Amino acid sequence: xxxxxxxxxxxxxxxxxxxxxxxxxxxxxxxxxxxxxxxxxxxxxxxxxxxxxxxxxxxxxxxxxxxxxxxxxxxxxxxxxxxxxxxxxxxxxxxxxxxxxxxxxxxxxxxxxxxxxxxxxxxxxxxxxxxxxxxxxxxxxxxxxxxxxxxxxxxxxxxxxxxxxxxxxxxxxxxxxxxxxxxxxxxxxxxxxxxxxxxxxxxxxxxxxxxxxxxxxxxxxxxxxxxxxxxxxxxxxxxxxxxxxxxxxxxxxxxxxxxxxxxxxxxxxxxxxxxxxxxxxxxxxxxxxxxxxxxxxxxxxxxxxxxxxxxxxxxxx
Length: 317
Known about the structure:
Blueprint: H1 8-19, H2 27-51, E1 60-69, E2 72-81, E3 86-92, E4 97-101, E5 106-111, E6 114-119, H3 121-138, E7 146-152, E8 158-161, H4 166-171, E9 172-174, H5 178-186, H6 196-209, H7 217-220, E10 243-245, E11 248-250, E12 257-258, H8 261-272, E13 277-278, H9 279-285, H10 291-300, E14 303-306, E15 313-316
Parallel strand pairs: 3-7, 4-8, 7-9
Antiparallel strand pairs: 1-2, 2-3, 4-5, 5-6, 10-11, 11-12, 13-15, 14-15
Helix pairs in contact: 1-2, 9-10
């Protein structure tokens, strides 16, 4: 099992939005992607409430696993491992009316007088479950039954489908019916496919093979470094930069003061720029005037370091 956390890309997008001028050409696209991904994150988080209803001793839950087969990656929002079968669950947080069109295997979303075509999440999770089957076989876990399910987390949404679209009726539900669906599929299997030892081994493999999506957003959106706002961001009002004087960071906009704003500067740098930093790079990104002050902050942060003197670099442990 792994801890449910805010996805890495969400965190990166959040930092980028805070540090990018709103007039930059790609800003609106970045903002819209961030809003979509945050809605998805909130949906997955709300589904965790219902997952607590599963017996912890018999159900092993993994969040947001991203696994690869021959350089082809697939991600499963919720993976539930039991001794009898495995569940792959795709979570969406769609609002409005969601109608599954059988003729074209698509999802039609109507919300606030706006009609959009979306990928069919039932077919998405079906494909993910097929990839998981190949992955399990490759890692010596053959013949483990896999069930798949689409769960919509928005409790105000209305789901419907064309008559006869059986895979949708059978494999989709709102979050409050998820446990009922899981238990319904569980009752199909009478024999155990995974021993306790197998489950422990599989859990280690899943966690060791998990590869979070980690892209450089500046390269992806063609953003020059000089377009990124440097300095400390005020945690109270979001103003960048705060000024540093006499060991205190002060916001000129709201007057908020901080003694450890450098920690957020480092976190933002590692998320947005690269995973290592030297004294000169930190001095520049933190808007500091002194190399000695920059060194003092780096030395006091809980970071690993390599090299000596001017060649020393720091990175997260």
